[in-house]
Structure formats: C-alpha cells, structure tokens
Amino acid sequence: MPAHVAVIMDGNGRWATQRGLPRAAGHREGVKATRVLVRAADAVGLRYLTLYAFSTENWSRPEDEVSTLMRLLEESIYRELPELMERNVRLRVIGRGNGVPLPVRRGIDHVVHETRVNTGLTLVMAFNYGGRDELLDAFRALARRVRAGELSPEDIAETDVSGALYTDGVPDPDLLIRTSGEMRISNFLLWQIAYTELWMTSVLWPDFSSCDLYRAIADFQRRSRRFGGV
Ligand code: IPE
Ligand code: IPE
Ligand code: MG
To answer: Is 88 a catalytic residue?
Structure first.
C-alpha cells in the first residue's frame, strides 16, 4: 500500500461546461468527490492524503469564481468536522496563510486545532499553495539559519531542505494522481515528488470515484520503484 497519495483535483470547470452549467456547479460537485475520496482513503488505510485545493496561480481566475471557491471551502470545512472527528482524521494545511480571506483562515485554523489529536489518516490540504513559493520560503528560512551562524552552507543537507518545507514531517508522496487528462504538475510539491509514481486519468474531478482510487493504487502496486538503482 502507498502510505501517501497526493491528488491534483482538476476538471471541475470542464465538467460543468459539458453540462451547460456554470463553473461553480462543477466546484460544488468537486467537493462531493473530495468527500468520497477522503472516505475511500480512510477505508483502505492510507496514512497521508494530500489534496491540491487552491494554487497560488488560481487567484488569477475571475473574482466571482475565486469567491465561490473560498465560500465553498469555508462551508465544507465546518460541515466536515464531525465526520473528520469520527474517522479520527487529522487536518493539516500547507500553503501561505497570507492573502486567504479571514473567515476562511479562521475555519481552517479551527478544524486544524480540533483535529490535532487525531491519530488516523492525515489529510493535508494544499490551499493557497505554490511549490515554488514553498521552496522560496524554505530557502529564506535556511538563509536565516546560516546568517544566525547555526548552519554552514556546506552542511546544508536534503533533510534541512525537507524540514524547512511546509510538509515537514510528512513523508514524500508514493503516488500522485491527476485528473482531467492534463499531463503537468502545475506547481505542486516540486521537491517532494522527486521519486513519486505518477498516475494520470482523463476522468474529470467531479466524476472521480472510490473505484478510480483503487485502480490507481492497483496500478501503483504493479510498478517497480527503482529509485535510480536496479
Ligand atoms: C479544479 O478544477 C479546481 C481548482 C483548480 C480549484 P478547475 O476549476 O481547474 O477545472 P478546469 O480545469 O477548468 O476544467
Ligand atoms: C491545479 O489545477 C490546481 C488545483 C487543482 C488546485 P489548475 O487547473 O489550476 O492547473 P492548470 O492551470 O491546468 O495548470
Ligand atoms: Mg483546471
């Protein structure tokens, strides 16, 4: 079993457009698919599930779409709290807090706080997340340690970089799933996916089901991970 699965949940807009619906309808369906995925991930015993919910680049979308996404997140996070508690799921958030509307930030902080003692699945939500921003923040933190005399440049190790990322303490993903047929990473977990197995599907995010997760895991189990060895 993979311990850590990361997902780029893509295709909400196209799902809605295909049905002649506003993009917001696709995002609402996307939330449902996300709920199904968390249940399936918990049921199969994943340790970590990382979801790409909103990228730093997504701010460039029309204002009404951005506010729909913010409102949906705020609503869902409070609504899902009882089930997260019941399933012993711990929520963790990666991304920059700055720039996120205050009510959304409050909701996220509340749920992170409430679930902090849970010991089951860790749900890592990438929100206002950018892989390059994360690396920049890590390099700045390391530079500060160097300036303070705690670390010499020659001694900077991979573990220092990993430890300075938002994902400190989270193992690298074993499997990365992307929906909607796009073959790109879109600024997600750039450092962490060095040896992650990739699994792309043309299924649009609102149509993603637990069977798709099982299929991805079954494919993963047939792969030979060599990490550069033989
Ligand atoms: C993913 O679906 C949701 C977010 C990026 C927040 P999209 O909104 O990107 O849907 P498409 O890619 O336009 O179909
Ligand atoms: C990636 O999807 C970001 C999220 C799923 C949150 P995008 O739709 O933003 O990515 P691009 O624009 O197709 O690369
Ligand atoms: Mg997209």
So the answer is: no
